[in-house]
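PROTOCOL LOG
Step 1. Enter all chains and additional molecules of the complex.
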Amino acid sequence: MTLPETRDRDRDRDRDRDRAGAGPASPPAARDGFPQLLHAEWTKLRTVPRWGLTLLGGIALTVLISFFSAAGSSVEIADQDRPPVPAGREGQQLVDSVGFAHRALHGDGSITARVSGPAGVEPEQAPEWAKAGLLIRESLTPGADYAALMVTAGHGVRMQSEFARDVPGSAAASPDTPHWLRLTRTGSTVTGYESADGEEWSEVGTVRLADAPEELSVGLFVGSPDITRMERAFGNVTVGQLGSSATADFDEVSIEGGVTARDWRHTDIGGVSPSAGDPGEFRRSGSVFTLTGSGDIGPAPTDTDLAATALNGSQLGLVLIAAVGVLFITAEYRRGMIRTTFTAGPRRGRVLAAKAVVIGAVAFAAGLVAALVSFLLAMPVLRDNGHVPPMFPELALGDAAVLRAVLGTGLLLALIAVLALGLGALTRSTAVSITAVVVVFVLPLILVSTLPLELSQWLQRLTPMAGFAVQQTLPRYGHVERLCLPENACYPQGPWTGLTTLLLYTAAVLALAAWRLRKRDA
Amino acid sequence: MSGPGPGPGPGPGPGARAGARRLGTVHAEWTKLRTLTSTWWLLSAVVGLTVAAGVAVSGSLTAGACPVPAECHEDTVRIGLTGIWLGQGAVIVLAVLAVSGEYGTGTIRAALAAEPRRLRLLAAKALVVGALTAAAGAAAVAGALLAGRRVLAADGFPLPALTEGPVLRAAAGTVLYLVLTALLALGAGAALRDTATAVTAVLAVCYLLPLLAGLVSEPEWQERLLRLAPSTAGLAVQATANLDGLPIGPWPGLAVLTAWTAAALAAGAAVLCTRDV
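Step 2. Run joint prediction.
Step 3. Record the structure below.
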């Protein structure tokens, strides 16, 4: 609210500034330099107390909302009876439960088999990542280091290890035609080979085992990951995990090297998974082994992105920062100051560039401070509310993903402020520009949780809100199906892709504004 | 859109003159708004954005959302009217500028010299802005519903008849919603006077509160916010199915918005009557 006196004071100050800008004391040549323009624009921004207060308000709003949304959060553990989840080397949550028919291997050796499958048992159409193949494990305990070579239902041959690593082999291999696989162990190195005919072999990849004890378990495995069922209507989401199982036949099975006298044994790694219900099966008739199993070996990604939660106040704070970006140019139009500005710097494109640099830098600083404080305040609260390993990752400011999210939030707010400036220059109207920014950034954020999923994901990809993708920190794995819902601040695209989308919008609006500035009378 | 009556004429009696003068104020406001090109741009934006967004959202329903269109759980009427979220932005700009624009340029002093009874001036502004919004809103809602139906019918969705009670309620309620939002913005413009402040405040109430509801993780507070925010409460009137799942019923929701509007108008009137211009 502006009191009449303040407005007069503003006007006086404007007049003073006009005088200083057009004064004969300074040589005109120096006026035209870009550093001088920057300095002039910085002085303008600095000397309007209301704008500084609004920027501070933007920071405070971001921090407050982030803090309170963290304070209200809680963790619901759906299934108390579930056995303790295995944790990986960095404390991340894992899935480690497959059907495994195995023997003990001493020292170096190799296992070869011809795999027919996997074929779906329940349901008949196997999930794309149902898998059957060869497995070498350090132990039968869930979470143990392993090397696995497999034929998948929909993604050809893969070699997987360390829960997160996934190396593709030949994509042509399908569950319908038998395929040869071989794993060879030499010391701590395991190498995978595949062949379509058992004659010509090609290498798929190598894996280094962490401890590589003398005795390892080698054998055949079958897994079939849970199927996620989702119903999303009226803004409510119901997500259910449905167990699935698959089967595969193995023949021409041979193990070379130091195999103990003990015969084949069958283990459901991690016990029988509660979602699958039935234990796996292992049958042998002649030289053909038939194995049925369910589950998966891989990372178990969580839905909640803690860093994004700790930064979500920026979705509201952006409005105040964008308002300053708009006013930075529309206020000059309203007071006629813009004419003085263009007299002092007749090259309008450069004036706009100087304004963009100044507001962008200031908004970046404000956004960075807001993001840092939000993260540092909200993280301990989230942790106190139960967001702790192994269900949730332990995040620190130094992690690459967290740094990207925090710095990215600064960049995001800088781009929003510059976009707002461009809109202000384009429309010359405060009301229209501020509304446009809010509608463009905030409205998609409101609507994505109520609109049909497909449309929501297109909004996330194509509207400027894509920039918020930079706040994601959850790792993405190609070899695990993960439900990516806008409700969980999950964007279909990667962090930098999203920020680039926003950058393109900002550049386009700024270029359009520069063009219009030159064409139109001030 | 029907223009108000003729300007002030030479009336025979004092009562008639007062009536003519009231109409004169309305006429003056109508002239002010009519002669601004931005008014027509904004009103076209209300219709265009609402219809375009409605068609886009209805069109998106086909692919993944419903496995069998005939068993679709989505509230097609409500989805077809989603565009109102865009259209209300233009309405807010129009209504805020109707007051704050006069403060920005100083014509408010001339306006009050012509009509010293300030409440009457505010009422005249509210009448003109409300009527224009109602007309544009009716066109937008009709357009969005009819265009959305064409898109949905082409995909084989079962559609409720347009004369069914809930559909009529959604249509009429959405127009009312837009008018009430316009008056809320008008009141805020009169109370805050500065365009940037007033627009930001109204946008915060209309857009940031619902967003905040999405960020709050406690379900109790979330529900409370959804019930209290003017836009989410007011738009409950668009629901034609699954009414029990709503945080607030259609008409009570519109009543919440009305309370916000009344408060904004009262604040605007109080500031206008007590403060110097």
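Step 4. Note key features.
The longest helix of chain B spans residues 118-154.
Residues 39-274 of chain B form one domain.
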